[in-house]
Amino acid sequence: MSRKQLIEMTRRHIAHAKARTQDQAPSILSVPALNYYDPDRWQAEMEGIFKRLPLTLGVSSELREPGAYQALEVAGVPVLLTRGADRVMRAFVNTCSHRGAIIVPEGVGRARRFVCPYHAWAYDQQGALVGVLDNDDFGDLDKSCHGLVPLPVAERAGLIFVGLRPETDGRATIDVDTFLQGYDELLDHLGLDDCFVVGRQSVEGPNWKVAYDGYLDFYHLPILHKNSFGTEIPNKAVYDAWGPHQRVGMPIPGMEALEAMPEEDWPLDGMTAGVWTIFPHISIASFDAGGKLYMLSQLFPGSTPDDSVTNQIFLSPTEPDAEHQAKIDEQMAFLKHVVRDEDYFTGNRIQRSIKTGAKKDVLFGRNEGGGQRFHSWVETLIHTADADLATVLASRVGPEVG
Fold first, then answer.
1. Bridge partners, residue 161, by sequence
2. What confidence tens digit (pLDDT) does each residue in 199-246 have?
3. Of the CATH numbers 2.102.10.10, 3.40.50.1260, 3.40.50.300, 3.40.190.10, which one belongs to the domain with range 55-173?
4. Considering only Cβ atoms within 10 Å of each terminal Cβ, which end of the chain, N or C, has fewer?
5. pTM, whole model, 2 decimals?
């Protein structure tokens, strides 16, 4: 079924390429400039989106072996991901039950136990408290009641999804299948589960929505990126959506050559090209670095409405030798330059200028349907009650086009 969807999407791309057209929204959308910097609005986004929806926090292949872990902080919540000896992926709030210290520093590694650096309380891979320093002196404590606080976690398409509300929170949580609306079946074709993590780097940026707007926008490519790569790529976009998640493709001239081939022979690489986004903060794009290289961008809000950080995770379908790794490193440096010195340099200036109040709205044209859909979902979700969230997500089941 998912390959059939890819073929249908590719047919649309071919039709646009032959006609020299692109997807068009019904009208221009105005978004209040205040939405990008108002503290109350930003807080509503943190609570209604980042702390309520499943977030893509890890890559399964990087944490495949028992004992593998990753620690990171998201929207002010310290998170620990760990693969147990039973090969089950678990997620916890990375906070000691004793006095709240952060247990594991940010990063990836391997461990059988996690020992708090403050008073050496120890936890196993299942989050159970298994050791209290000077237990007899500390006092009578039921260890079974003081393990790490679990977070909801699931794996799909080679990615690890985590909810930031503890399972003991008592509020409604969204299961990952309701959230993805079948989108993971398409993401499976990228083959991320079999990839090797071959590099990481981070880039600081503007408000998370200013930054994310760029991942959904091909309109700017030949202008902003004219000195890097933009002139090699058409600025027209074709959009497909599954709930709030979008694939941004392009009607590349010459695609019509596929029509001379049987559809069952259409190459997967061509049908999966473009940018695959996972709401609200993920972009996956592929590049050539002596072989296919994926850049998975994790966009996280910063500590204020004005800033964000993007973690770039690079994945290769093959384990690179030294020569291949050198090409990957070169491509990584180039992509960091593009995002930091072109996209986010411009985004930071946008962030400063819209705060002047000179313009009350920012505009998304009919050719910018991806941005229109993104902002529509942000607006919808922050005004949706917990009890209605699953219904709202399921009411717009993909794929929807245009």
1. 56, 154
2. 999 999 999 999 999 999 999 999 999 989 867 777 899 999 999 999
3. 2.102.10.10
4. N
5. 0.94
